[in-house]
Amino acid sequence: MRFFISAMLGLALLGETARADTTIAPNAILIDGTTGTVLLEKNADEPLPPASMSKLMTVLMVFERLKAGVLSMDHTFPVSHKAWKMGGSKTFVRVNTRVSIADLLRGVIVQSGNDASIVLAEGISGSEEAFAEAMTARARELGLSSSSFRNATGWPHPEHLISARDLAHLAQILVTDFPVYYEMFAEKEFKFNGIEQRNRNPLLSRVPGADGLKTGHTNVSGYGLTASAERNGRRLYLVLNGLKSSGARARESERLIEWGFREFAAYPLLKKGETVETAAVWLGSIDHVPLVPDRDVVLSIKRQARGGLKAFVRWKGPVVAPVAEGQELATLHLEAPGIQPVAHPLYAGVSVERIGFFGRIFERMRAMIFGFDSAA
Questions:
Q1: Known catalytic residue: 228?
Q2: 92-110 mean pLDDT
Q3: pLDDT tens-digit profile of 16-31?
Q4: 8-19: per-residue pLDDT in tens?
Q5: From 42, 52, 147, 300, active-site residue
Q6: Which among 112, 147, 221, 253 is annotated as catalytic?
Q7: CA–CA gap between residue 239 and residue 174 (Å, rounded)
């Protein structure tokens, strides 16, 4: 069953996403975190070598244990010979010493330390290999279907892969589930063992509201960035990869974040609990049940666009009593030229009891006379 409700919304708005060729990055995605709307994507589901951006998964594994109370920031892990001699970006931890979780996390987040990443992996799982297996398993549980990890650092490996969409999803989890720990991503420098290093994220000093997350670079992956910025309660997530230089990464990420904030806005369409439509109820104590969203419905579209939004509700009907309040019954679909269709589940706004035996007999007789479809 399908009902158009454009007039009911009282707001006609046209959405338009950018074409894939609006970025020079081979892989990219830009998402409005307020509404979940994809503003731009290009090869976003292609598994790619993420370099140090995969350290976001390493960090998440630690954040989860901190939140659960399994670890604390002042807990220390020993530095193995393997961690100490690891090449690439370093925090410069010393072999046969112990380093606090707080320092190791900042070593990973701010300095992109491969050595600090291995110390965390070995401290949690006993070995980097076991930790990488745990990373992959946890990624699957979180819905990161394109992710497979073979180490804790992002060191090149043919089977160490993650998509831009998965990186954006991972970034959103870090922001929303760990707001206290996430603040470390905004730190611009960190000093350890007398060596001060600056955060490589170019947006922290170039874009108002930028507060994370992680750069990445190897000869295989090119230059990449997973980033986020918030302005006036609206947060964007950006992932780019495969760029040819750090300068191109800085310019393109700044341009796309600013474009997202400038060109798009989040428009509220419905309030939580507001009746969108009513569904006919068969054999119920009332004839119709209101269909309501369980959260505010907001859509991100271009600011200058007007007219063209189509909204309709689909359900299999009639609904058969009894119906429990909060039972999922239907789906609200939002469509417009140039945007990906958006679907929101709708739920019963009230409970509906099933009528008694004689009432059911009457309803069946009425169906026979007037031709109503019986679903009893």
A1: no
A2: 98
A3: 444 444 899 999 999 9
A4: 343 333 334 444
A5: 52
A6: 112
A7: 14
- CATH 3.40.710.10 in the chain, residues? 20-264
Domain 20-264 maps to which CATH number in 3.40.50.300, 3.40.710.10, 2.40.440.10, 1.20.1270.360? 3.40.710.10
Q: How far is CA 179 from CA 63, 111, 158, in A?
A: 10, 20, 33
- pLDDT at position 61: 98
Length of the chain: 376
- Any catalytic annotation for residue 55? yes
Catalytic residue among 42, 54, 55, 117, which? 55
> Do the beta carbons of residue 73 and residue 45 sit within 8 Å?
no
**The 27-32 sheet, strands edge to edge:** 37-42, 27-32, 234-243, 222-231, 210-218
Residue 230 has pLDDT above 60, yes or no: yes
Can 100 be counted among the known catalytic residues? Answer: no
Q: Which residues of the chain form CATH 2.60.410.10?
A: 2-12+269-370
Structure tokens at 257: 């974040």
Secondary structure in 3-state letters for 293-309: CCCCEEEEEECCCCCCC
Query: Do 48 and 164 contact (CB within 8 A), yes or no?
Result: yes
- Do residues 216 and 244 lie in contact, with contact meaning Cβ atoms separated by under 8 Å? no
Quick one: tokens of 158? 């043919």
Which one of 2.60.40.10, 3.40.50.150, 3.30.70.100, 2.60.410.10 gives the CATH number of domain 2-12+269-370? 2.60.410.10
Q: What is the pLDDT of residue 376?
A: 37
